[in-house]
Specification:
Elements lengths: L2 E8 L4 H14 L4 E5 L10 H33 L6 H4 L1 E2 L2 E2 H6 L14 H39 L25 E9 L3 H7 L13 E5 L3 E9 L3 H10 L3 E3 L5 H56 L5 E8 L4 H12 L29 E6 L8
Antiparallel strand pairs: 1-9, 1-10, 2-9, 3-4, 5-7, 5-8, 6-7
Helix pairs in contact: 1-9, 2-5, 2-8, 5-8
């Protein structure tokens, strides 16, 4: 399971005792979860007012950074297109998979110096996440434009004969060129109507050159036929062809234009390949940065909430539980029993109840500090 519960409880005589109690209750006898200590360093506490304000700010920042993490992960999946099974192996934090990173979490002192105030640390994270978000928008926009233009050109060169580009199908010798009076037209004829075409094309207008039709190309449904006629008969020929369910394509042979189209396609294809490698590298690096920042916010939230709930001096044990999927309800009950003494009001508060002044409907409330971390960051299952 990719879901984790990050909780904290006050230290008994020592924090080790708190840990041991949790282990006995959840793993030794009933295998409800896999647990790890979650190491939070000695952060600067600051004043109570600051902590209360910070608690709200961190909640918003948590939501924002999680959204950035998901956006980068989802865009990685979009960019990797046909190799979506490779997405997970590119979503790493500090070079290790996400579960390993979380279960062995160590505070990054270089990025987030603990001598700084909690407010400053949260601002460092906020700036970092905003920068990644802005960069992602710019890079995604540039790459998507390129990809979109290439797809449009590819679409023009595929599809049915009624709509596709004919540049790679026709040749110069298929056309009467530079004639004052004659012109070569192209008609799309359903395969079931080939015989009708051969019988009728010369009579669709007065000025069709006899025996001038030639089959140039076929797809599943239709064939592309050339036919030569006098220029003054073009409109009449088109009208009669339409009545007979033959579609005349508006096409003029222009070597320069066709060459330019092919060159544009080659250029876009080369550009896309050139940008692909650096973009994937950027996504890998910045996914790691954003994910690490996100888990540090979780650590900050646990710290702030634990001090607000359990008081000073700082004395709590943060613990990371990976619930066994089948036993999640049971695990909740065991944790409730273990920690109900921490908050007598929690026992009578039902999170689904809407009590004025208590904003509990927005989040789950338990007598212990609790935050969920879900590592399934993609909209699809790989």
């Amino acid at each position: 399971m990719t879901e984790f519960w990050l909780i904290s409880a006050p230290g008994e005589k020592t924090c080790q005792q708190t840990w041991d109690k949790l282990m006995v209750a959840t793993t030794r006898t009933n295998n409800l979860s896999n647990n790890n200590k979650f190491n939070i360093p000695d952060l600067k506490v600051g004043t109570l007012d600051v902590l209360v304000g910070l608690s709200d700010e961190l909640a918003k920042l948590d939501t924002f950074v999680e959204s950035v993490v998901k956006k980068v992960a989802q865009y990685m999946a979009d960019v990797l297109e046909d190799s979506r099974d490779k997405v997970q192996e590119n979503l790493l934090a500090n070079g290790v998979d996400l579960v390993t990173y979380i279960t062995r979490f160590q505070w990054d002192m270089a990025k987030y110096p603990i001598k700084q105030s909690l407010k400053n640390i949260s601002e460092i994270i906020s700036k970092q996440a905003t920068q990644i978000d802005n960069d992602l928008k710019a890079r995604a926009s540039a790459y998507n434009n390129l990809k979109g233009n290439l797809q449009n050109l590819e679409r023009k060169n595929a599809g049915s004969l009624l709509t596709r580009s004919l540049a790679d199908i026709v040749k110069k010798e298929d056309f009467v060129l530079d004639s004052e009076y004659l012109v070569t037209m192209l008609a799309v004829v359903p395969k079931t109507s080939y015989t009708d075409w051969q019988k009728t094309y010369e009579t669709l207008s007065d000025m069709v050159v006899p025996r001038s039709t030639k089959l140039l190309f076929e797809d599943h449904d239709s064939g592309l036929f050339s036919v030569t006629l006098f220029r003054k008969a073009i409109d009449d020929f088109k009208h009669k062809a339409r009545e007979n369910k033959f579609t005349v394509r508006d096409f003029q042979y222009n070597e320069e234009e066709m060459k330019a189209d092919k060159e544009e396609m080659t250029r876009l294809s080369t550009d896309k390949k050139k940008q692909f490698g650096p973009l994937v590298r950027w996504l890998k690096v910045n996914f790691s940065e954003a994910f690490i920042a996100w888990i540090h916010i979780k650590a900050l939230r646990v710290f702030v909430e634990s001090v607000l709930r359990y008081g000073l001096p700082v004395n709590f044990q943060a613990m990371l539980l990976q619930p066994n999927k089948k036993n999640m309800k049971k695990l909740r009950e065991v944790l409730s029993d273990l920690y109900k003494h921490l908050d007598s009001s929690a026992a009578i508060i039902d999170p689904s109840m809407d009590i004025p002044g208590l904003n509990l409907s927005q989040q789950e409330y338990y007598p212990y500090v609790y935050y969920k971390i879900d590592c399934n960051l993609l909209d699809f299952k790989v």
